Amino acid sequence: MTQIAPPTSPPTRQQTPEQVRAFFDAHRTVRQYQPYAMPAEHLDTILYAAQRAPTDATAQLYSFVRLTGETKAKVAELTTNAHIASAAESFVICLDTRRVRKLIEVAGYTPGESPAIDVHFGIGDAVLAGQNMLTAAEMLGYQGCWIGGVMNGLAEIVGLLKLPEMVLPFAALTIGRSAEETPHRPRLPRALVIHENTYQDGTPGELAAATAQMNPIAARPGKDGDWARLLNAYFGVGGSMEKREVALREVLKAQNLWAGE
Ligand SMILES: Cc1cc2nc3c(=O)[nH]c(=O)nc-3n(C[C@H](O)[C@H](O)[C@H](O)COP(=O)(O)O)c2cc1C
Questions:
Q1: Is the shortest distance between the CB of 185 and ligand 1 below 6 Å?
Q2: Which domains does the chain have, with CATH numbers?
Q3: pTM for the whole thing?
């Protein structure tokens, strides 16, 4: 029987710069979906793509919880993101540094303790796998939405999904066929986010110009965008991130992922 030799180098999937730009330009975060059930083959493909993500130390430090039925509705409520319920598929994307310890225990070794490292590489792995899944879904004609709103009901979600120690939700991720006209949202000027060799703060003038460039992302029908105001509501004194900080610290402790005193 003839045997086909394995490829000596990775197979290419080269596209033109124009094709690559066009693909990423077509990305939109979408929050309204058609009532369309994802065919099994598509679901299988996006889950396959998730698991093909590169991973720290070979360990695959993530678990996804697929939401259906009442649990899906409840997570939509707890996150205050109703589109979790209406999307064809919704997942809670979790850091999971528990399974790696079970694996080494089963092999007769003693698991170590490294909560800060667990959070660092676990979140990284979870995001890489989740974004692989979203990109695969976009290749299949879907759009989706990452949902940091899990922080709005973090402890309740951990309880509802029965997440054990060393498993922590990072965000939810919805995927569906778009039912909305979504604007192409701006990004910061490249010079502020890509540094050459050493980090540079933007000057006040550059930051003000960047804010003007970003203002449309905060626009609402009939109302001009004010991006600084939006950022302040998240990251300013008394903003939602300060509230989330308190809840996250509690859950990090409960999940045995707290590295502080
Ligand atoms: C980690 C993360 C958390 C997010 N959380 C939410 C959320 O809770 N609710 C929501 O509607 N959109 C959420 N988004 C979507 C962002 O608002 C969106 O990506 C951003 O406005 C840029 O828009 P674009 O993806 O269409 O370019 C989140 C995105 C990320 C990456």
A1: yes
A2: 27-182 (3.40.109.10)
A3: 0.95
